[in-house]
Amino acid sequence: MAGKLASLGAEVHLWGRREAVLHEAAAALRETHGAQVFTHALDIRDAAAVARQVDHIWQQHGPLTALINNAAGNFVSRTEDLSINGFHAISDIVFRGTFYVTQAVGRQWIAQGLPGAVLSIVVTWVDTGAPFVVPSAMSKAGLDAMTKSLAVEWGPKGIRLNAIAPGVIPTEGASQRLRPGIEGNRDSARQRELDNPMRRLGTGEDIGNLAAFMLAPGNTWLNGQTITLDGGDALANGAYFTDYQAWTDDDWALAKAMAKGAR
Ligand code: HXC
């Protein structure tokens, strides 16, 4: 998404927890697109740090025109095995952290009477639910509700909120946490491609193109919508991870070790 927007001339501010990863991403965007890219290392679970950093951007760089909420945390687990800390690790990022950022940016726009656009990344499981990732499913459903609610509350101020509900866009980090390749698991990437009506999984280009469309300055009547971007997968196949019902205790132990090893 950042690459697509940078290619269209956007100044990009990247947030994340790890400075080295941010620097690497910024360097790639500068090199490929000649873009103006700035990075800010922080954890969105810290509401005070979020407010400070939003202030800093406004003071040093001027107002943002758009916010993309893409931060998330997730791993597969039987819900009865989750600790309260595990529940918080996910919901504090996805549910609370996204609210902190949206509120901090919205406050600036409102105080200055500026228009703005918020695009939140959810998942198709806001419609289907999702077994074995219940804290994520609950939190993403909350963001879907935030999108609809604030679209109405902040629409009169020229601030619009929309969301994309992507299907499977494979990345190494997500695969290690969500699809650890337990033996006999039919949920391989190849099988997911064959099951998808479009016979492929998603790509960064897919979501970059839709994000650019939804944030485009000429698109100001699009408000309060969550657009599914999955090649029709959820319509054909419903919720993810249903076949994990067959996993044994050993499979779950292995999945946990792989997710923790991905850190
Ligand atoms: C069970 C786990 C666990 C696991 C952590 N915990 N990993 N429990 N299975 N695999 C528990 C820990 O035991 C601990 O509880 C608590 O969670 C907090 O763990 P920490 O390691 O201290 O958490 P933290 O450092 O905050 O790490 C956050 C994280 C981590 C979310 C747990 O995985 C992370 O940083 N992930 C990177 C981002 C990410 O997940 N990206 C994928 C997003 S995919 P106890 O009780 O032991 O103290 C996504 C949806 C996409 O969001 C859908 C695509 C289809």
Question: Can you tell me about this structure?
Answer:
One of its GO terms (molecular function) is 2,4-dienoyl-CoA reductase (NADPH) activity. It comes from Bordetella trematum. InterPro entries: DECR2-like, NAD(P)-bd_dom_sf, SDR_fam. Its EC number is 1.1.1.100, 1.1.1.69. This is 2-deoxy-D-gluconate 3-dehydrogenase. The chain is α/β, with parallel strands linked by helices and about 260 residues long. The chain has one domain: NAD(P)-binding Rossmann-like Domain (Rossmann fold), CATH 3.40.50. It contains eleven helices and six strands. It has helices at about 1-5, 20-35, 45-60, 85-110, 125-130, 135-155, 170-180, 190-195, 205-215, 235, 250-260; strands at about 10-15, 35-40, 65-70, 115-120, 160-165, 225-230. The protein has a four-stranded parallel sheet, with helices on both faces. A two-stranded parallel sheet has the order 1-2. Helix 3 (about 45-60) packs parallel to helix 4 and helix 4 packs parallel to helix 6. The longest helix has 29 residues, at about 85-110. The radius of gyration is 19 Å and the shape is globular. The two termini are about 25 Å apart. The mean pLDDT is about 95. Hexanoyl-coenzyme A binds near residues 75 and 260.
